[in-house]
Amino acid sequence: MMSTMHVRVSGIVQGVGFRPFVYGLAKRLDLHGWVRNTSNGVEILIDGNTVNIDQFVKSLSDEKPPLAKIDSLDLTRVELSNIQYADFEIRESAAISGAYQPISPDTAVCADCERELFDPNDRRYLYPFINCTNCGPRFTIIKDIPYDRPNTTMADFPLCDNCRTEYENPLDRRFHAQPVACPTCGPFVTLRDSRTNLPDSRISTIEYRIHAILKTRRLLREGRIIAIKGLGGFHLACDANNAYAVEELRHRKGRAGKPFALMAENLETIESICKVNEAEAGLLTSREKPIVLLEKKREANFTSVAPNMDTLGFMLPYTPLHHLLLNQTDPILAREPAPAVLVMTSGNLSEEPIAIENEEALERLSPLADVFILHDRPIHVRCDDSVVRVESGKWKDLPLSTFHFLRRSRGYAPYPVRLPFNVNPTIAVGGELKNTFCLARDGYAFLSHHIGDMENAETCESFEQGIKHLSHIFRVQPELVAYDLHPNYFTTHYAHKMDVPQIAVQHHHAHIASCMADNGLENKNVIGLSFDGTGYGTDGAIWGGEALLASYADFERFVHLEYLPLPGGDSAIRHPWRIAVGYAHALGLDIADLPFLQKTDRQAIAIVQQQVDKKLNSPLTSSMGRLFDAVASLSGVRSDVTYEAQAAIEMEVLSKPFIASADTYPYTIDETINVKELFTAILRDIRANEAIGVIGAKFHKTIAQISMDICKQAREQTSLNEVALSGGVWQNQILLDLVRDGLEKEGFVVYFHKQVPTNDGGLALGQAVIANVIASGAGG
């Protein structure tokens, strides 16, 4: 029997080899018709034997290309008695007004291209922009959909005859690979300082073509700092084993203590430095190539890279240029040996967005870098590296490959979160720190790449550019805008300028809703533990230690940390000794004799105490993050920090060896979590010269027990048995392990983030779903 089928495929099906896959499949099954890209996916008309058509449809999902992700297959039997197709063809793309589709994130160099990169007989030997349909830039070069070369930053690179032959052959691995190029027709690299062009790679012989790369390898080995233009922006790189170079980079970048990311040539090198389990190895070698946090081996050094840390953030090369800078075996590259491990940190001053344009980098990064390795392929969207951590896999229903995001960006953004219900076209602008925004429509929520902290004009401009670009790509004409309650956030002011209905969303409610949407929950009530550093409360106070009874539609504050003063407001976050002094003074506790205050000016201490007494610039806070800061400072971890949560992070490191044997401190819970008994007991341990790690371990155990007690109280009063954990404090692995394991033993169903970060990088997802449920009038 003969029949005809119309197939519409949605998902990530453009720029991933889907059309040649369809072409080859149709040929194999002796089917006729056509396939084409459209603005909302791939459209197929298939004609032939009914059994073969059924096999064709099944194979679309079973055999799809490695980068393809199918969200839906819409099938329609059609009558085409007057039309017969003699063959199967790939048609020109069709733009459909108002239509949209998910687009592929950037992907790392595939195994085939890596093999060709180091094959002396291949015409792309040592070419730093080799790619194919299965790898290379996508999101960072796309300007519009459909995803065709004229709609990318490769439009200005006409294909040579050899590349065009590959590009136009449906059976070639580079068929319609939009960034395809070679040394004859593609981008090239240039090495220069801020003033002088050095020999570039647009020279015919291999030796001259890679002159810039060879010299860069030598400069890195000599301890120089290099600005490298990559896939989604510039990195600043140096030899990770050269402590002087690392400290010089810290000094120039204004990044006193925060860990740097590292890149090594291969997995074996990383395994010689860190403990790497099967799941971590899988992530390191995946096509996304994120930065993976790994436990450092005891004998490993790298103290200057990650001071006071027991973990290192490693990634493997994900662009051809990275491979060329790190490869140790190619005979030509080996003429200039490369460092085994490079620091690869974002190309910016602290808190600024990464540079993406050559002239911009030469201007902004000249004080930071000795030399620049540039290329002329434009970057349309800046995109930082993603940072992930693998779960231990010991919890019920968690596969060993489960991981969670600390930052979701390159390799993953802007792949959407599938929502449990359809929504109106919406923009959710996120928060002030670790900002991402969210564009939502129909059943999709598109979380942006990492924008950063909205602390300067450059980041705010990047935020606005990102919204404009992705709104166009995904054809979102917003009918709703969601924003944080905080009246002074840049994102709040941005939302107020929009001429559409506006819905303010409380920060911690958004965290819990984000976790719910991340796990695909329908609108239902859960117990939400929303623990973070800062969020504007409905009463104008700074919240952050919140147990909520929440749905998408509404929330009730069940229990929270007691309010304590934050002397100096936001400035106290950089000086946790001020938080410790303020908390202790408000609780009526004398800490003048404690060691951590001995180097602090007595007048400064008195001023903080006066601020608390007179309520001068001492806003009240229920923040769990600030409680961690106060305890870390009290116990002697550090009095001042150079990056967010540094004191708490270092306390976590010191606490790990003592967790198993630690007991808990006393506390009471009524309408609030009261901490005077907790502080009194901690002070007793400090005066008894107890080790910092022991105090930290007992404190972690106490917060975990408080969390479990609250959930049990909430279950007794409401019969709710599902708990959502969200907020930046849950990046603390000790606390997450203790609470999730403890709650599951008590019979609770526990939800944690899977697709977006638990910190403010996932906030916009919660804002988007809450705003839509509120706008629709749905109850919770």
Short summary of the structure?
The protein is of the alpha/beta class and 780 residues long.
Care to describe what's here?
31% of the residues lie in helices and 22% in strands. Helix 14 (507-518) crosses helix 22 (763-776) and helix 18 packs across helix 20. With 780 residues, it is an alpha/beta fold. The two termini are 52 Å apart.
Radius of gyration: 28 Å
What ranges have pLDDT less than 50 throughout 5 or more consecutive residues? 394-400
Helix content: 25-40%
Which oligomerization state do the chains in this entry correspond to?
A: single chain
Count the helices. How many?
22
Spatial gap, N to C terminus: 52 Å
How large a portion of the residues is in β-strands, by DSSP E?
A: 15-25%
For the sheet with most strands, the description reads: 12 strands, mixed
